């Protein structure tokens, strides 16, 4: 993971159904090259291979299940995420929470497979616990702000400051990024000033009328 980073979580919004996910990823890739900044994308699992094979920027899976390959109907093992071409995986998002034991298992399994891990957490203390698992990075996202347009960096800057402090106390090598309500250049810039090393953004980009314009705006704050 090259820092600072903008990670675009496409979730399963209808705006990225089918090949539209690849279209968004290609726009992100073009902006990344133009600005010389780090951008990663997390498409729906059904489009993971299509996107991974279609762009050169990092592609993350939106999640994985704590199971080994085998008789696991409806599950997504990390081995299948890896084989699809992903470079990493988002874990424990507030919309897809995991038990602590399962989270620890997935982080360790991902390491053995050479996959990066971005572990999400809702608050500073949970973020510190996540840092103890030694993922690639921790993302603090107050769930009550997700999708609201009320950026955590504006509404709850103390959450970011405390998270960075506690996470570094646990493991100074684990970078902290943040998300929830991020929608403007100023939101990203403020998040970086507060000590984070990137942002996780979803609806502000996916639902934007002009993908390129919005990605340019947010990614421009990383320079």
Short structural summary:
Helix content is 42%, strand content 15%. The chain is of the alpha/beta class.
Q: Give the CA-based shape.
A: globular
Structural class call reads alpha/beta
Mean model confidence by pLDDT: 96
Uncertain ranges: none
Radius of gyration: 16 Å
What is the number of E strands? 8
- How many DSSP H or I helices? 10
Beginning-to-end CA distance, first to last residue:
16 Å
User: Could you give the order of the helices and strands?
Assistant: EHEHEHEHEHEHHEHEHH
Beta content:
15-25%
The percent range for helix content is: 40-55%
Q: If strands are numbered along the chain, what order do they take across the biggest sheet?
A: 2-1-8-7-6-5-4-3
Q: Biggest sheet: strands, sense, closure?
A: 8 strands, parallel
Structure description:
The chain is an alpha/beta fold and 223 residues long. The two termini are 16 Å apart. It is built from 10 helices and 8 strands. Helix 1 packs parallel to helix 10, helix 5 runs parallel beside helix 7 and helix 8 packs parallel to helix 10. Helices cover 42% and strands 15% of the residues.
